[in-house]
Amino acid sequence: MPGLASGKLREFQEMLACVRIAGKVRASFTIMKSTKPFLLLLTLLLASCTSTPPGNTSYQNYPSQPSAPPPSPPVFRPHSPPPIIQAQAYILVDAATGRSLASSRADERRGVASTQKLVTALVVSKSGNLDRRIRIEPSDVRVEPTKIGLVPGEVISRREVLYATLVKSGNDGANALARDNAGSTEAFASRMNSLARFYGATNSYFVNPHGLTAGGQSSTARDMARIALAAYRDPVIRDIVGRGFVMFHGHSLKSTNDLLRRMPECNGMKTGYTNSAGKCLISSASRNGRAVILVQLGSRVKYIWDDGQAMMNWGLSNL
After folding, report:
1. What pLDDT is stored for residue 75 in this prediction?
2. What is the C-alpha separation between 139 and 150, in angstroms, rounded?
């Protein structure tokens, strides 16, 4: 095109492409050699490309430039090394960012016992309608050893069962919630695994809602920390796991989490124990706007509470 500077030509070509995509004009044009007709055509094309169709404000939902990825959290530089604890696998994370603060064998697959009731609770909580009442079936209570005292035939709300199940770690409650939610243990376990994958817990496989030993069932400390972060951010579960007691069937159920009574900063989570998994504990604590979550797997009763308090105090002091 004689008489057009190369820069203007490129600009015109971009405007022409825009118009073609928008469907404002036909695909062929004849550009006159004189400057004024060209500038007039260029002005019309620019107005066509930048105008907003009537009633369409969806453009307001898009940034003018691609969004930058969120900044990485600052490198964690503790003032002192973490305390030595007895858990066979553990991880301590910043509850605000999920950043790992200390860990050992955090990706080793192993049993996690009743701490996986946090997965059960998340599936139930996310399903909603917690005040709907359910009828307890005989199959719900055919489980040992820890129970909340459900009676076959009774009708009770999902919320009541969920509160008692997390506070007292009732296996009968976990069974009832799973059957009510999905129809069977197998179908509910599938939902547990889907939820785990959604939260990035990709090295886990759950078979039942309560955590009793079962073939193929395992997780890792890191995966359970991801689950715990999701539970920590769920307002219903956060309220339940922070309670030292809950009323159920007219009497008080005491939380299995002794750290709630030992450590003022502790604000919840979940215990677990089987012979094969050992003593397990997921715990959370906060102080002065800082919060941590600790997963301990494969410990022993005489160590786990003191270890949990020492490790979380270290994390809160070094964040």
Report:
1. 79
2. 11
User: Is residue 75 included in any domain, yes or no?
Assistant: no
Phi then psi for 246, rounded to 5 degrees?
A: -145, 140
**Does residue 70 fall inside a structural domain?**
no
Q: Per the domain annotation, does 290 fall within a domain?
A: yes
Q: Return the CATH number at 156.
A: 3.40.710.10
- Packing angle, helices 158-168 and 171-182, rounded to 10: 140
Tell me the C-alpha distance between 57 and 131, whole Å. 40
Residue 39 has pLDDT above 70, yes or no: no
Decide: 217 and 207 in contact? Cβ < 8 Å: yes
What percent of the chain is helix, strand and coil (3-state, nearest 5)? 40, 20, 40
Read off the tokens for 61. 């939902």
Q: Give the pLDDT confidence of 103-152 residue by residue, as tens digits.
A: 999 999 999 999 999 999 999 999 999 999 999 999 999 999 999 999 99
CA geometry: angle at 216 spanning 193 and 181, to 5°? 35
Exposed/middle/buried for residue 62 (C-beta within 10 Å: 0-12, 13-18, 19+): exposed
